[in-house]
Every structure is written in C-alpha cells, then in structure tokens.
User: Fold this.
Amino acid sequence: MNENVFKRNELLAQKTIKGLESRNMRGFYAENREAALKIALGLIPEGSSVTMGGAMSAFEIGLVDALKNGNYNFIDRTTFADRHDAALAAYDADVFLSSANAMTDDGILVNIDGNANRVSAIAFGPRKIVMIVGINKICPDVDSAMKRARNVAAPCNVQRFNLNTPCSKTGACADCKSPDTICCQFLITRYSRHEGRINVIIVNDSLGM
Assistant:
C-alpha cells in the first residue's frame, strides 16, 4: 500500500474511533490483518462461547479458524439442522462476531439483513459484539453509508448467495420487493446503552463486501 494512502487511512480510522467512543462504543485500529487478529483474540477470553453472523471479514483475518482451533466454545451455525435454532443460540453467547455493511467516520454503524438474525443480535442479546471492519467501509455520513450498504454490500452478497434479485443482475439497488431480497431489516446503531459491549476493530485493509 502506498505510504500516503496508508497514513490517510490511519488518520481516518483514528477519527472514526473517536466517534465510536463518543457513542459509548470502543474502537481499535489494526494496521493489517495480523494485527486485527491479535486485537480480536485479546477481546475474547478463552473459554468464551462465540458465534457469528455472516461476517466474511472474520474469516479473512483468520479469526474463525483461530477460534475453532483454540480454547473457545465456537458455536458453528452451519452445524445446526434448523437455522432458527442456530440464530437463537447467538442471543445467549458471550461474544458475537460481525462486521458492518458500512459505517460513518463519526462512528455510526449501518447494517442490513435478510433474516434479521445478525442485526437483532447486534442490537440485543450477546454480551459482547466484536466487529471486524475494513477501512473500505467508512463513509462520510449516514446517507452515503446507507447507499454503500444497498448498492455495494447487498448486490455482492446476493451474488455470493446466488439469489434472484434485480441487484444481482444490475449491481445496483432497485428498492425491490423480491422474495429473495436481503434488504429486509435496517439497523442504524448511533449509540450503545451498554459501555464496552460493542467493539469495532478498524483494519487498514479492504475487507468483506
């Protein structure tokens, strides 16, 4: 990465961390994926029960493999016969892993969900939320963050899941009511009532969708 770009990203991350702190959330800066993994494991005590939403960023930094191979009770939702049971297991977990579809540079988190298991767990339930967020997801305001979530993250995810929506063909949101739409529930987290519950690791790398 170009040195000037790296420094610009670091300054943007530090600004966003201050915004998170003003909203009763904790922010951490990781200069690369290896540093992000170290910070994440430092936030998750050994023996913790851990589950997750569809956070590709957690896979990309090696966190999921580290939890599966370490001294943790990793609740793998893919092993559940019933998806509803898998979603309910998250609400009593010590730690829930996620990312954000977008966030503002003053610390507001934006997430969109199809089944609502991810956004509902972020809002309430698990004792601690650990988010892995690439620098590519930081936007200047809520409007641009929402546009990113709907026009970048959502089309990429429906293509990944091979769903039949207009955005899977055009790459842009059509505000559709398709049976396959994943834009069902919108969660904007502007403040955390519970100090230390939401922890956001901002990584100086492009991660996730």
